[in-house]
Amino acid sequence: MAEPLYLRPVAEHDLALLERLYEDPSEAGELGFFGYRNTGQLRRMWAEQGFITAGGGRLAIVAGDDRFVGEVQWRQVLQGPASTCWNIGIALLSAERGKGFGKRAQRELAEYLFAHTQVNRVEASTELANVAEQRALESAGFSREGVLRGACFRGGAWRDMVMYSILRDDVALKA
């Protein structure tokens, strides 16, 4: 039986682990570290406005008895003159990868966004080399749409990304 997993607002006691996901190259891993960008930014954002706004947010991924395993985030993007959707992302602590938390958390986030907002589309992208994330998205019900050539700069090089989406009609919302 799978370990219980749920999403909840980020709490102050989560911030140190959340910072490690983005500021520690060994914790972020090869596909998750984008350089030292703005140390302390996450704490400032949390203190000033929290992590849930009209244009996006972050939720902690917790397993078992409230063990922080990572975070999911979403931001609003425009896909036409009057059509917005959510673009989502995920980061898991290195010790928690490969346990199925990613696919479950991304599916939970998509269901949450469809239940509480009016968007019709949730999208996610990942580097072409990130096969594990591609499998997680596909297992979560996302459809592969195509490759975005040279769309992401990381580690001194431009990298191709793979775009995925899930539509409101693809998700049977829990009653």
Automatic annotation (TrEMBL):
Pfam families: Acetyltransf_3. Gene3D superfamilies: 3.40.630.30. InterPro entries: Acyl_CoA_acyltransferase, GNAT_dom, Ribosomal_N-acetyltransferase. It comes from the Bacteria. Residues 5-169 form the N-acetyltransferase domain. Signal peptide: none annotated. PROSITE patterns: GNAT. This is GNAT family protein.
